[in-house]
Design goal:
The chain is α/β, with parallel strands linked by helices. The chain has 3 domains: 6-90 and 275-297, Rossmann fold, CATH 3.40.50.10800; 95-179 and 305-329, Rossmann fold (3-Layer(aba) Sandwich); 182-260, 3-Layer(aba) Sandwich (Rossmann fold). Helices cover 39% and strands 14% of the residues. The protein has helices at 13-24, 36-41, 48-57, 69-78, 94-97, 101-110, 124-128, 139-143, 158-168, 180-183, 187-196, 210-213, 222-231, 246-252, 281-290, 299-316; strands at residues 26-31, 44-46, 62-66, 83-85, 114-119, 132-134, 151-155, 173-174, 202-204, 218-219, 236-240, 257-260. The relative contact order is 0.18. Bound molecules: 1,3-dihydroxyacetonephosphate and iron/sulfur cluster. 1,3-dihydroxyacetonephosphate is lined by residues 47-48, 121, 135-137, 179, 205, 207, 221-222.
Length: 346
């Protein structure tokens, strides 16, 4: 449901949003991939893990979530008594779309001796079918706490799963989902940039495919990429994640140069998340005014999905989300079909 905003011309949106925020006792949470004007008025900007923690801990009555639907659903599940609004309910995620709950349930049923370690980029219904949720910043530390002989299904991002498998030496059955944004980064364009700027390190999100990850000096969540970009002595950083995060980099280090790695042939906008882009200041204003579009989930799904989410928060502890998660050292397990259940001992 995309909200109509044509009638808002002439409104001082920033002042109106501030007024409504006070009236509603609302908090505005935003992901790093949001437009700069949304990041700048948010009470908190963060990665998926830190946004989940904020949502779980807030004492506001209303959470206005400027991100995508699975993030707002997570906020609702962790704070079920709050009203959670998402400026545009069509703000989905290709990873969520790749993993319909009925197919995921069938996959689980076919592998009864595996636990499901599931990336937070999925629907509430898939969370409800999972054992432990992870984010890109918490996946490594959580995987490390699972006994080595425990068989694992990892979904829905095959690139994050493959990266973890080779970094940590754990075979996992991978669901074949991808992020359309990170999939689009061009290795040719990245190599051109590296040749032009040989001293610039590359920071990449683990949702990138191996042909991008393999050129990276730092691999981690959005928060960890931001920390790396700011703490690196390099004056120029090549950024292989959604480029709206560069707004935070430029604010914090105005003298450094941050270059977003292009997608496709170098001339498309395909390295930008089309779902994140649906949120606008106008729609945020309407969401705070009308308390719509609002996240509504069944009590049963929320109850079941809360268990693996709370496990994530507990297992991730307080320190996760900082620093490098390391360079890959093991052979790539890129294609899920290569991880044959027979090989993993089924
Ligand atoms: P982070 O948890 O790293 O912010 O990732 C969220 C996301 O959707 C990346 O595409
Ligand atoms: Fe989903 Fe990719 Fe957009 Fe993140 S960047 S919300 S993973 S489509």
């Amino acid at each position: 449901m995309t909200v109509q905003t044509a009638s808002l011309k002439g409104l001082d949106l920033l002042a109106e949003i501030e007024r409504l925020k006070r009236e509603r006792n609302a908090v505005i949470l935003a992901h790093y991939y949001q437009k700069p004007e949304i990041q700048d008025l948010a009470d908190f900007v963060g990665d998926s893990l830190d946004l989940s923690r904020k949502a779980a801990a807030t004492d506001a009555n209303v959470i206005a979530f400027c991100g995508v639907r699975f993030m707002a659903e997570t906020a609702k599940i962790l704070s079920p008594d709050k009203t959670v609004v998402l400026p545009d309910m069509d703000a989905g995620c290709s990873l969520e779309d790749s993993c319909p709950p009925d197919q995921f349930a069938a996959f689980r049923a076919a592998h009864p001796d595996h636990i499901a370690l599931t990336y937070i980029n999925c629907s509430a219904a898939v969370k409800a079918l999972s054992d432990i949720i992870v984010t890109s910043s918490s996946a490594g530390i959580i995987l490390d706490q699972i006994p080595k002989d425990q068989k694992i299904i990892f979904g829905p991002d095959r690139h994050l799963g493959g990266y973890l498998a080779r970094k940590m030496g754990r075979e996992m059955l991978l669901w074949p989902g991808i992020c359309i944004v990170h999939q689009a980064f061009s290795e040719t364009e990245l190599l051109k940039l590296k040749a032009e700027h040989p001293d610039a390190p590359v920071a990449a999100h683990p949702e990138c495919p191996p042909h991008i990850i393999d050129h990276a000096d730092h691999i981690g969540s959005t928060k960890s990429i931001l920390d790396f970009a700011l703490s690196s002595p390099a004056q120029m950083i090549l950024v292989a994640t959604e480029p709206h995060i560069i707004h935070q980099m430029e604010k914090a280090a105005p003298n450094k140069i941050f270059i977003g790695v292009p997608g496709g042939d170098g001339n498309c906008n395909c390295n930008m998340c089309p779902y994140m882009a649906l949120n606008t200041l106008e729609k945020l204003y309407v969401a705070l005014r009308d308390l719509q579009p609002r996240i509504e989930l069944s009590a049963e799904v929320m109850e079941r999905a809360r268990v693996p989410l709370e496990r994530m928060l507990e297992m991730a502890g307080r320190t996760v989300g900082q620093g490098d998660v390391g360079k890959p050292v093991l052979p790539i397990i890129d294609h899920p079909e290569e991880i044959d259940p027979a090989i993993s001992g089924d």
